[in-house]
Amino acid sequence: MKTIVSGMRPTGSLHIGHYFGALKNWIDLQHHNQCYFTVVDWHALTSEFEDTRNIPAHTREMVADWLASGLDPNLCTIFLQSGVDAQSVLYLILGMFTPIGWLERNPTYKEQKEQIQHRDLSNLGFFAYPVLQTADILLYKGEKVPVGVDQVPHIELSREIARRFNRIAGEIFPEPEALLTPSPKISGTDGRKMSKSYGNAISLGEPSQELEKKVKAMVTDPNRIRRSDPGDPKQCNLFPLHELLSSKETQEEVIQGCTTAGIGCVDCKKMLLPSLEA
To answer: What φ, ψ does residue 123 adopt, rounded to 5°?
Structure first.
């Protein structure tokens, strides 16, 4: 058995990217590992510090989604980050061992500063959140951290912090390793990474009417300018959802119809909707 550590920020409704990118994997991992899954409410403060009123409600809703999806408290440990004081202490200590240059090169920090204009991210907490993330992992001697491929740089930074701490203070913490999720990257309705912060997400509890509206507006293969233009499902924002949700027969029909221009993008979206609604 390995020690698995992961968490989610309670900043809004969970979306299908959360489910396929993380939650589905957590459910499988809990059966064969020592798993710690945490509501990282301190991480939520990095972007929600000006108005924290919704964090408690989002926390309850998120954990309810975890349980409904199949996380079992008898098989894993589910807890609130802020309920463990030792995490803030370890965060402070690890901050003394972390060079500023390591944080400045964090690709997610740069990306979110560029993409998220409606929130004030010019705070120390947001800049140093990889150190808090490292404390989340190391406190429980986490060996594996289930992440998507875009999160691998974060885990590499955690490894560097652990390595530096161990070299200076003694061998205390294991160097955590990224455990890649088997699902492909789930893009949002606009083609960027699906994120609540970007306003491009399809939530797990999306009402049918809203779901249809969002799917109809999804960006597809940019080369299919006209209905008669053949497309390439590998370049399409929509097809990864077919791979996850649609039958093999439907996927083959989509591939055939798209590459020959036998069907249009609207047809492809209509074929996805029943599976996505289910």
So the answer is: -135, 155
